[in-house]
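ok new one. same drill as before - structure tokens go in, u give me an amino acid for every spot. 48 of them this time. try not to just spam alanines like last time pls lmao
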């Protein structure tokens, strides 16, 4: 029983950390979107 509880708590902790890192206010997902937008702007400014 104790082992099951520890495993469950570990999984919950990992999910919470993952969610906060990826989807937080300044998370990875937001940074990738901002970076992609910035790259698109830079590419559109290049004149052939």
């Amino acid at each position: 029983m104790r082992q099951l509880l520890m495993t469950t708590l570990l999984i919950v902790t990992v999910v919470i950390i993952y969610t906060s890192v990826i989807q937080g206010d300044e998370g990875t997902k937001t940074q990738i979107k901002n970076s992609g937008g910035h790259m698109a702007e830079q590419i559109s400014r290049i004149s052939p």
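The chain has a mean pLDDT of 88. and btw The CA atoms of residues 32 and 38 lie 10 Å apart.
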